[in-house]
Request: fold
Amino acid sequence: MRDTPLSNCERDFLLKAIQEKKRLDGRQTYDYRSIKISFGTDYGCCFVDLGKTRIMAQVSCELITPKENRPNEGLIFFNIELSPMASPAFEMGRQSELLVKLNRQLERCLRNSKCIDTESLCVVSGEKVWQIRVDVHLLNHDGNLMDAASIAAIAALCHFRRPDVGIQGEEVTVYSTEERDPIPLSIYHMPICVSFSFFQQGTYLLVDPCEREERVMDGLLMIAMNKHREICSIQSSGGIMLLKDQVLRCSKIASVKVSEITELINKALENDKKARKTGGKFGFAESLPQERITALKTDVSPVEMSDVKERANEIVQRAEVPPQTVPSPVLTAPGTGQVGEGLENSWGLKEEEEEEEDETVELKMELEEGHEEKGRGDVVVISDSDSEEEDVVILNQVTTKEKASISNQQGAVASKQQQQQKKKKKKRGQ
Reply:
């Protein structure tokens, strides 16, 4: 899945804001986002939050046979995974250009800089050495992945402890953590990457670009440096031409940032070490009660509450007085009520019922008039039953011929009523 491109309006807005020395999150030109470093319950598990960019690094080890040309040196292997959970633009099982670029830069930064003593990883020369594997997982993508990955990887390596090993003749015994204390790695220095983004062919410079700023930048410069101001690696991408003064200026800025980040890593390691010694909460046990496992969380912002009462009184005074009386409802019929304008809506059913009643009354009147014309005052009552059946006619002293004529008339009335009922049911069904 391809990433959603920026519109022209967004691109122009970002570039204009950079020209005015303004950024989306309110930072200055050389400011980093807030960095948080935490460790898991196991040794070698590290979480780094660089703003909303969240990365987890996990270090593991195993005994392997060394290379023939270097029988006394262990191996270090780096693996970066970009999961679709971090961004919909990433796909599982496919090596993108960004993934290859991050892997190579991380290897240059940590392995080629010789920050770890690989000879200390040797167990038996030419037979058994330790292979250190660093897995870096991207949990949320919000720009500047290289800086966050380098911080997470070096912090996880400093936090990692490998098992102790015993050798008796040709037998190699690996002791568990319960039998012997694990041994930390020999780390000479901590190289950390600092990224610089350039806009408008190098006219404007920003430190720690976010994801939207990376989309509109013209070029990127990554400098890997330690706190001793030694440049471990440098890489430029984007096809822009940089002057010598620009590179020197970026290296001076990087030296300041690297010293601050190195101090932050050392403090995080010390706090984790104290928590483990005293038996306090650390790792996931510390993050669970505070619900800080998720990548995105809301920061607490202070609210000014000194003049709340005064402002509330002003708003109340300016507001209009609500009406004291409520309009009375319209009563269309006894036992019913209606609020608002308009009358009761009968959907046309009431008018049809009235027409049918008028027709039945006319038929009854015709029947009574026919009996009266014959001079017979024998028709006593024409009563309506409560059911939907035909009307009941009560006759007294009627001859057979009159009975036959009356029954014919009643049959006609009944057939008409049945037709009316069928029409009524059809209309209701529609």
Observations:
- The two ends are 50 Å apart (CA to CA).
- DSSP finds nine helices and 16 strands in the chain.
